[in-house]
Each structure stands twice: as C-alpha cells, then as structure tokens.
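Hmm, what's this shape?
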Amino acid sequence: MKAELRRAALAARGAGGDAVALTRNLIAVLAAHRGKVLSGYWPMRDEADPRPAMKQHDGPVCLPVVTGPARPLVFRLYDGRLDSGGFGTSHPPEDAPEIQPQVLIVPLAGFDRAGHRLGYGGGYYDRTLRALRDQGPVTAIGFAYAVQEIRAIPAEPTDEPLDFIVTDHEILRFG
C-alpha cells in the first residue's frame, strides 16, 4: 500500500507549488531555532528546495550522508563543497567535520495531517530520528508542497513522527 501511495505522492509533487510561500513558511518555523545546528538537504529531482531558507539560518548547517544500507545517516558540516552520493544525493566531502543536528529539514514523498511521513522506502530518516531522539530533543520538520498530502499514511512501529510539516499553503505543528 505504501508503494502505491508513494507513487501517487511523487507524481503529484511534480506539479510543484508556490516556492516563495514554501520558503517563507520554512523561514518562519526556523526562526525559533536560531543558533541551533540545522540539517537541511540538497534537493534532487523535483523535491521542495530548502536551500534558500538554509542560507538564512543563523547557526551551523549540515547535510546528511548515506553511509550504507539500513544505517542511520551521518551529518557533515556544509561549507559550500559537495560530493556526489548514492541515490542521486549530494553531500559534503569526507573531510568535512561530522556534526549532530538539533533541527532537521526532512524531505519526503508524502505526508498526512497526523504528522506521518512517507519517505522513499529506505528507512534512513526513521532510523536517524530514532537514534537522535534517544540522545536528546530533536525537531523534525517535514518539507513538501501541499499537493503531496495523502489522506492517511499507514504508520508502522518503526516510523518516526514529524514535529512540523511545512508546505506552501500552511504550517502544521504536532505534539
């Protein structure tokens, strides 16, 4: 069922949305997190682009690195340099320092109004959020166009909920 939902959400994502409103809403949510370590992501294909908001963040910014299958992500400080990674990703080079994020902008295929995220099927962010939350408070911000909303995502015990979902139409807060 999740595979079907993912296909539909990714097809809808192709329509995009209001990038200016999307950035404005993300900047508004990030304002409460000034000075904290922020993890963003380098968008691929037609993902919502967090880079304009990341540039305005007052604090360190890092990007995720996939280190292997079924492993949590590692985060490296972003200093403008990028290497190509697996799955079409871009990330800081190996010599960039590892840093632990306090706030994460999380890409997604789809979301629902209960704070559930439909990812790409690898479980990287679920494993990562679980590991980070075991160490202390972490804020997870799902970032997507409103057209990516799904009526209901079947949650599994390994799925980690989001604290916010930011779209071009609204900001949803959970918990």
